[in-house]
């Protein structure tokens, strides 16, 4: 130890060595304790305070010494353990679903509407492109899909052969989650990634509708997407809107740095991603169990599609779950901030 | 290149620095985790294949469903290992633990569920085009050695000090081994501090009386020692006690 040059420091170190050993042991125990009791938590806080105080003294007595580093690391480990978010309680979940998700959805609503327009424009462009140049369909469809449609069979009703509906739903869900979260993540490229994904999906949708229309199967394709499509496409627009908002946070930072601005915006929009994942889970189940089934009639599909979409809109607009009186104002202003009263 | 450090302020206002894990530590942790999840996924597949061969199952539709289920569980294990383990362990997967690292927020605190999920969602970009090239490049170029997921989530990977308690154990053991009582060390230290302010005769007398008490076997020698020699002996005593 560097205390060799300073007898006073050496004395102090020697007098406290055993205490630090004990404090370090307590710190290690506290770090590994997942569910401390109140007494244990208070004891850990005391240990933390004592360690921090000793660290300050050691740092002034023996700067740049091994002991300073060791105490610093011990204290930092305890700092991480002490400062951990409260467990997700029922109240927190309720607030997340009732308040935070609608607030996050409201924050990106204008962008989502614009992206819906972009999706529709992309679909229109795709329709026009394939109608005008039918040979370009090979850019958006596999040879098997093209061959099937040319022989009067939609690929959508063959997917039942890929496995049981539950497995199919899981595959569809995971695929949709990757696409949707991809639209969000690629927003980090100053929003351009989200634009690209929405436009490409619109082009593919419009192109495939045009292609199936040329072979008299467009109604079959519409029938297939009727039940799950509205929510799936809306969720894609929402996730891409969240991604665009990330891009905006980088272009026009609302904090002192671009990094801080990005972090803040991500934190605000994280609840929306959870909502997207849950909505896609429902869509995946519909797409796996209902959409490919020839027994389900168009009115039923329409009812399911519109019903699910309405449910989504009610939830995202905050009208699905009524807020207790007095919570409405607070909920809209404190998104992402944990109410101290709920931190149990 | 100087080691990147994360400076955080404790609740008591004392600043602490944590060494930030570089691309090497990250890669090592990732490889350990990757091996675990790959083995887990393969184990599911192996179980499904073996179950298929059981008499009564082989050749029946159940065998196909078993294989599909095994594949589903294998994929789930492979792709959900990282986010689930990070959530359960609050930012310290087995790979990170092995590499002596953990994920913390920029304030040095344990990251929340949202931050951990966000950093995992961004693996979609960090993993591009293959083998986390984007993430690795980002780690090399950024000041805090973070990938894009960490940038978005406000997290950073720091090195923990598994041997900190061992060092303190050694220090305490060393302190216990010292034969000189603490009060005696304080006395010698006090005398040496005041050495120049004391008259030569007075400090020599004090030094002799202290040394006779502390080193009874050297009574005769101490009585004959000159003042500078007495001081050296006192300093040697103090040096032994450090």
Query: How does the overall form of chain B come out from the CA principal axes?
Result: elongated
Helical fraction of chain A equals: over 70%
How many runs of DSSP E, i.e. beta strands of chain B?
A: 4
**Beta-strand content estimate of chain A:** under 5%
What is the N-to-C order of secondary-structure elements of chain B (H for helix, E for strand)? Answer: EEHHHEHHHHEHHHHH
Please give a handful of descriptors for the protein shown.
A: 344 residues, mainly alpha, 12 helices, B: 242 residues, two-stranded antiparallel ribbon
Question: What are the SSEs and their pairings?
Answer:
The complex is a heterodimer of chains A (344) and B (242).
Chain A: H1 7-32, H2 38-61, H3 66-82, H4 90-132, H5 143-150, H6 165-185, H7 192-214, H8 218-225, H9 229-251, H10 258-289, H11 298-316, H12 327-333
Chain B: E1 5-9, E2 15-19, H1 23-52, H2 61-88, H3 94-99, E3 101-105, H4 113-121, H5 123-126, H6 133-141, H7 148-153, E4 155-159, H8 164-177, H9 182-193, H10 200-214, H11 219-224, H12 227-241
Antiparallel strand pairs in B: 1-2, 3-4
